[in-house]
Amino acid sequence: MVDLPPELAWTNPTDLNCLAELLSAAHPDAPTTAAELERLERGHLPSEVHKRGVIEENGVWVGLYEVDTPRSDSHDGWLSLSVCILPSHKTLGEILLARAEAVAAESGAHTLLSRAREDWWELALLQSHGYREHDRMWSSTLDLTKLDFAAFAGQEQKAQAAGIQIRPLIELGLFDEAQQFRLYTLIAALLRDVPSTSPVKVWPFETWQLRIVDAIDPVGLFVAVAPDGQWVGVNELYLVSPAHPHTLRNGLTGVLAHWRGHGVAYALKLASARAALARGFTHVRTGNHSINAPMLGINERLGFVREAAWVSVRKEV
């Protein structure tokens, strides 16, 4: 364990309310809640690495490190780490990063991943310790109240002419295990085709059920249905956070390869946007890999405004 000044002490964090307070205080522009953390906690598998430590000062949590099995880059020997520190205690960054790297080494890691927003100070800390850019996710936001639906009527007409129906999940029958597996099969095929720096590791069905099913909004998730009844595309909208009650998160948007070029992605996004507006939502946020030019192009044409990117960094040890 790294030595600390006498006024500081390591502690084993178990209180998710305190953890949410620390994370939100460290970056008020990206607040989180104990409920959100609880959902993430439920998604950890017994076989995965999941370790964290906190530095406290007079009983107040001032810094945190976490070491985990990555959710999307869960290759053998790869672990993700992060540090989170109150703005008044940034000098603890070196100590927390050193401890996180030691814990990762004890857990058998040979490749370390981390990420930070490009305008956050943590990125410079990581880069100064040998981490190099691995991937870049562009965040962007669409103001639904300014979306010009008429400008994309031709795309929707193309999809209709091809016999595609765009339906919310809630209209496609009981979301039982068979229906869940049908959706999972489509999503797994689409994820394997997402342009990214390293191939997306698709979770087994049971893991996907554990982590995703309870977050699915059957009113906000839209499916493209082919004339033969096959599901060939999807657009996922989720509630982001109670802190942003009028904003939805756009997860995966994808269309199977043999159905591309028929306006299906546009039709999915536009149907989702109409439904979101009707439910009182005003904004949609999303993130796309920087090399995913087709989806970045669609989002830009729809009016998504690009923001600071999330930069994933990597270090071999």
Structural notes for this entry:
With 317 residues, the chain is α+β, with helices and mostly antiparallel strands. It is 31% helix and 29% strand. It has 2 domains: 8-130, Aminopeptidase (3-Layer(aba) Sandwich), CATH 3.40.630; 139-315, 3-Layer(aba) Sandwich (Aminopeptidase). It is built from 9 helices and 12 strands. α3 (93-106) links the parallel β4 and β5 (111-117). α1 packs across α2 (34-42). The longest helix has 15 residues, at 177-191. The chain is elongated, with a radius of gyration of 21 Å. The model has no long low-confidence stretch (mean pLDDT 95).
CATH fold-level name of the largest domain: Aminopeptidase
User: Which stretches are poorly predicted, pLDDT < 50 over at least 5 residues?
Assistant: none
Helix content: 25-40%
Name the helix and strand elements from N-terminus to C-terminus, one letter apiece: EHHEEEHEHEHEHHEEEHEHE
> So what's the CATH class of the largest domain?
Alpha Beta
Based on the model shown, name its key terms.
Aminopeptidase, 317 residues, twelve-stranded mixed beta sheet, elongated, alpha+beta
Could you outline the blueprint of secondary structure elements for this entry?
Layout: E1 8-11, H1 16-26, H2 34-42, E2 50-57, E3 60-68, E4 78-85, H3 93-106, E5 111-117, H4 121-128, E6 132-143, H5 153-161, E7 165-168, H6 177-191, H7 205-212, E8 222-225, E9 231-239, E10 247-255, H8 264-278, E11 283-289, H9 293-302, E12 305-316
Parallel strand pairs: 4-5, 10-11
Antiparallel strand pairs: 1-2, 2-3, 3-4, 5-12, 6-11, 6-12, 7-8, 8-9, 9-10
